[in-house]
Specification:
Helicase, Ruva Protein, domain 3; alpha/beta; five-stranded parallel sheet; 4 domains; 426 residues; three-stranded mixed sheet; 10 strands; Rossmann fold; ATP hydrolysis activity
Amino acid sequence: MQNEPLAYKMRPRTIHEIVGQQHIIGSATPLFRMIEKGHVPSMLLYGPPGVGKTSIANAIAGSSKLPFFALNATHAGKKDIEQIVMDARMSGKVLLFLDEIHRFNKLQQDTLLPHVENGSIVLIGATTENPFHDVNPAIRSRCGEILQLERLTGDDIIQLLNQALADKERGLGHLEIDITEQQIEKIANASNGDARKALTLLESVYYASDEKDGVTIINDNAIDALAKRIGVFGDKGGSHFYNLLSALQKSVRGSDPNAALYYLAHLLENGDLVAVCRRLLVMAYEDIGLANPSVGAHVQAATEAAVKLGLPEARIPLATAVVEMCLSDKSNSAYKALDSAIAAIHEGKTGDIPNHLKDAHYAGAAELGHVGYKYPHDSPIGTFGGWVQQQYLPDELAGTEFYKPVIAGEEKRMAAIYEKLKSFKK
């Protein structure tokens, strides 16, 4: 055990030792009371790395006293499952912790699922991906609860760090360490809510600091240097990455440049520049739209420049684009109008194209009745250009309005034109 990482050694042994996640397994929760009484339900634990999924499973195992098995779905085979099934038959009931459960294949499921269903195997599945997207419905249906874990708070992390510094059996309590509250807080902040990273950083800082007269004096420079190496919370392509993209768009839509820049920074630190640029370009048309049409061109230029520049320079045009979108007038009327038209088509609200709009660029078109089109440019109307009274929608949809203008920015002018043209129609 001496060679095991500090984060591993400090895992809670029972549910009473769990730090954080009080909304899931705090002493007042139904799950805590069930486990205390010896009943462990099958469940899915969903959340980002380092927030305690494995720790909670181990703590439940320690409190339940059931035979405990742990597998990782990325490399578990059918034989592994069959062995656990055999053990379940021998002992009556076992607890199986299955990490990365979203990678479980059909063959493994077929072997395991009946035993989860009859209760001989209690399954605790863990995943960093959204279980409603990435976990097979057969697994979900047999897990009574889907529990979403949250990133640990700064206070939670500080509590864990202090426990590790005080624990003489499993932690660093047997060592003489000179560390300040400010340094503990700095380590906690660097971990970004990830308990594993916090404890790993503490252990690394200890070994990187100088010793004097048998006392290790924690060095601020060591904390700063090592904190840069522990990585950014989240990963490319995972659920958290898409949550970051969602948070970026909603912050821009909500006109909050500070939040938008924060999420942009997080995304760029994850390194998927192309995905970020694609989302920003969509936002320019989805959320700004007709209220400020020039933004689309600005964001297009910014994203093209970002891709050409690459990181870290790409952050400069992207930051400009994000702030401009945040503080721009906003409208979603154009794409909402298109969505309404699409919905109408799916509802069967269709009709034949009016004859005067059909293609007439061939001999014989007139014989088919494709005549009567009036060319608007031949009928100037003020400074607007050309307009003529003419039906464009099929007869079955005549008079239908899909477009509902938003009175904002440049679209305010367009809305006035739209209403004026409507008034001309007979």
